[in-house]
Specification:
Layout: H1 17-43, H2 50-80, E1 88-90, H3 92-109, E2 113-117, E3 125-127, H4 129-145, E4 152-159, E5 163-170, H5 199-209, E6 213-219, E7 223-231
Parallel strand pairs: 2-4
Antiparallel strand pairs: 1-3, 4-5, 5-7, 6-7
Helix pairs in contact: 1-2, 3-4, 4-5
Length: 236
């Protein structure tokens, strides 16, 4: 398929010191998060108490740190070339539904409505399943983060003769025009928000790895839509 790079790096089979450290930190962090959430449940009846608010703050920051570790590990591997790209023939519908199921607890906790708008049939694509899931997860997580409680998020897909296009739209805060060119740059944080600032940079890298393109349309105060295209497989 034109435009897609086939990369197989033997180093991707190795686990380096950095990988082991990140894995160990994430394991410890998971234990902290679970413990904090259990304690929060115990304190829930006294919902205005200072201990509960402190535990909730610990949980929020622990989740933020967990996200940063995941993005750091992903970006470090991509930048060093320590990864493999092994595309397979995929049906996009089940992939989208699988990722929206993963993100549902986050949107549900914010009372956001998550819509999936797909036509009856879509052509297959040749893509690396994990990287495609990571693209969608990054976009949906980003949309939820910058959409207020009770807001709406929609993921949709269309196709033409050459490409499959997937769009994630929200009715969140939107992005000023003078900052829209910056959102795919590493470490840039929209409006100084929390997070690693790597999610959309990783997304752009992975989309382009597949030979596709990603772009943003946004209106301040009305929301954003991030779309990406992937070349269709010759095998349909």
């Amino acid at each position: 398929m034109a435009g897609v790079k086939q990369i197989n790096n033997k180093r991707s089979q190795k686990i380096g010191f950095g990988d082991a450290t990140v894995h160990e930190l994430k394991t410890l962090l998971t234990a902290i998060i679970v413990s904090a959430e259990l304690l929060a449940e115990e304190l829930q009846p006294d919902h205005k108490s200072m201990p509960l608010r402190l535990i909730q703050n610990i949980t929020r920051n622990a989740h933020s740190l967990d996200e940063k570790l995941a993005n750091f590990s992903e970006m470090a591997g991509l930048l060093s070339g320590e990864f493999s790209f092994q595309p397979e023939l995929l049906e996009i519908g089940p992939v989208i539904h699988g990722v929206t199921a993963q993100i549902y607890p986050i949107t549900h906790s914010k009372k956001q409505t998550l819509h999936v708008d797909l036509p009856t049939t879509l052509p297959h694509i040749r893509a690396h399943r994990h990287y495609l899931e990571q693209i969608l997860l990054n976009l949906l997580t980003n949309a939820s983060k910058f959409t207020p409680e009770g807001g709406n998020i929609t993921v949709s897909a269309t196709s033409n003769d050459a490409n499959l296009m997937i769009e994630v739209a929200d009715n969140g805060m939107g992005i000023p025009i003078n900052k829209q060119d910056l959102v795919f740059q590493p470490y840039y944080q929209i409006n100084g928000g929390k997070g690693s600032g790597l999610g959309l940079a990783i997304t752009k890298f992975l989309v382009e790895l597949h030979g596709g393109k990603v772009w943003l349309e946004s209106t301040l105060g009305k929301g954003s839509r991030i779309s990406f295209s992937l070349p269709l497989s010759d095998q349909r």
